[in-house]
Specification:
Blueprint (H helix, E strand, L loop, with lengths): L5 E5 L6 H8 L5 E5 L8 H15 L14
Parallel strand pairs: 1-2
């Protein structure tokens, strides 16, 4: 399937998000989630951001055709 949105997760102030937007070329929204000071975003924080983005778009954060764990 086609991505409905993109999330640029960075350990900085967003130096790469504009490059991601250029690559996506307006085909879908691009959001930024970043931390500074060497603080690494946790998987739970990233998942929460993905779930929030999915809710805003009215889509499931997990595609129905995604492989199940262990497959």
């Amino acid at each position: 399937g086609t991505a409905k949105a993109y999330l640029s997760v960075e350990m900085n102030m967003g130096q790469m998000v504009d490059d991601v937007r250029l690559a996506v070329n307006g085909r879908a929204p691009v959001e930024f989630y970043g931390r500074t000071g060497g603080i690494i975003p946790t998987p739970g924080e990233v998942l929460a951001k993905i779930e929030a983005m999915a809710a805003e778009l009215g889509v499931s954060p997990t595609p129905t055709d995604a492989p199940k764990a262990g497959e």
